[in-house]
Each structure stands twice: as C-alpha cells, then as structure tokens.
Design goal:
Layout lengths: L3 H6 L2 E4 L2 E4 L8 E2 L3 E5 L2 E5 L12 E5 L12 E8 L9 E5 L2 E5 L4 E5 L11 E4 L14 E4 L2 E6 L2 E5 L4 E3 L5 H4 L9 E5 L4 E6 L15 E6 L4 E2 L3 E2 L23
Parallel strand pairs: 1-3
Antiparallel strand pairs: 1-2, 4-5, 5-6, 6-7, 8-9, 9-10, 10-11, 12-13, 13-14, 14-15, 16-17, 17-18, 18-19, 18-20
Length: 256
C-alpha cells in the first residue's frame, strides 16, 4: 500500500488562510499546497509537502464530493489521491477550462476529466496531453485560460493548448526568447477587454531590449489576430538584487 494514505489521513492541508484536513489525527503536520483549483464541485490540491525525503511532489488529491473541503472529518478522503507523471517532478499548476482540468509540470501537461462520485478513492480519468517538445509551466501563475485555450510559459517558452495537443508560440520571438531569464517568476494573464494574453517576462542584462530602469516587460499575444503585439514596459524598484531594478511588475490582473 501507499504510506501516504496513513500519513495524509492525519495531516492538515493549509492554503492561504484556509486549513483543509485530510482526516483525524493527533498533532497533524501542516502541508502547504503549491496550487489548488475547483473542478466539478470538488477541490483539487497538489504540489504540497516539505521537500524532504518523504515528500511526493507529483501527488494530487481531491476533496470528497458534496462535502465542505474544510470539514475535518469528511472534507478529504485519505485514499482520494493520484500520482501524476514522472516521480519526483512536482505539479506546478492546476487550471480548468472547457470542462477539463489541466495539470501542469515543468515539462508535462496532463488532462483530468470526469464528474466524480460520492465514494471513497480517486474518482477521475487522467490522460497525457500530446506534448512532443516537453512544454510546461514554471510556477502556478504562469498559465491562464482564454477563449478556448490555455496559455502558459515554462523553460521552453510560451505555448498554448486546447487540452489535447500543444502549440509553441516561441517561433516568431525566438531571438527575444533566448535573451530572457528569471523564468521562475513569470506570469500569464488574460485581458478580456483588449483580447490579449499578457506574459510577464524579464530580459537578461545582455538583451538589447532590457531597460536598466524598467527591466520587467510584458509580451502581448493578440487573440483576435493570433500574433504577438507590441511589448509593454512597467515598474521601477530595487527589491530583488538578482534582477537589479524593476520588480514592481510581479503580477497584473485585468479588472472586469
């Protein structure tokens, strides 16, 4: 059997200011999910653990259908978990759309479907998204869903997927992409009014596009024309010595 079944049965899942409990137990150790997403009325959490010898970063679990995930007795069934993809490679993001929940790792994308049932154990189907070139995301904020596609950014650059195949968006910006760094802090957001997908990127110090004053910039993907549009440059700060200045643009969010 999987030892995590008993370990997690007596552990809390803490996410933000909310604590989710996987079952009863004395002195439960807190677990911090890296990402979470609601899908078909249950809560999925993944990427949690202490990164120690007993950590399984590719493990995902879901709450019990019809129960409050915060309920310490019935919120999570200890056996409602699954291992996604390569062992030891963490799940970095969860994002739903088109009736599908996608699971993103650094070089893998998986598709979860189904409506579940109010029964113990894992209740959903898991399939690998066709991803020949190993696209993935770098963190939970590096993916968004916009107009029937997921858009993301990882070590292999920007991409989009409809949940079955992956299409690279890197080609038209190959030269610019090679002069970027700091991928772990990138983000992707949808701007519905402008019909743009915004990619927050950081040019390296050797890039001719990099401003010493405002080094963070935004790439924009025009959804109407399916092309890259002009770059945006924002922010001035010196919060992070690794990037010099301009860390104010840590994230943006469109206000509808």
């Amino acid at each position: 059997g999987n030892s995590l079944a008993s370990t997690e049965a007596s552990s809390h899942l803490s996410f933000g200011d909310k604590t989710f409990t996987g079952g009863a137990g004395s002195n439960p150790a807190p677990l911090q999910p890296l990402c979470a997403e609601e899908y078909n009325n249950v809560l999925f959490v993944a990427g949690y653990g202490d990164e120690g010898a007993s950590d399984v970063p590719n493990l995902i679990r879901h709450s019990f259908l019809g129960q409050d995930p915060g309920n310490p007795v019935s919120g999570f069934d200890p056996l409602a978990y699954n291992h996604i993809g390569a062992d030891g490679v963490p799940i970095l993001a969860l994002h739903k759309g088109r009736g599908i929940l996608l699971v993103f790792k650094s070089n893998e994308i998986w598709r979860i479907t189904g409506f579940g049932a109010a029964l113990p154990g894992w209740q959903y189907q898991v399939e690998l998204v066709n991803n020949t070139f190993g696209y993935g995301v770098s963190n939970p904020w590096a993916v968004t869903f916009a107009e029937d596609y997921w858009y993301g950014w990882g070590l292999n650059g920007p991409f989009r997927t409809e949940g079955y195949t992956v299409e690279s968006l890197r080609g038209p910006r190959e030269q610019s992409w090679r002069l970027l760094n700091g991928f772990d802090d990138y983000w992707v957001e949808y701007h519905p009014d402008r019909r743009l997908v915004l990619f927050g990127v950081h040019p390296s110090q050797t890039s001719g596009d990099r401003s010493a004053t405002y080094p963070w910039m935004t790439w924009g993907w025009d959804l109407a024309r399916s092309v890259w549009t002009s770059d945006w440059v924002f922010g001035q700060s010196s919060h992070d010595p690794d990037y010099g200045a301009g860390y104010d643009l840590a994230h943006v969010k469109a206000i509808n």
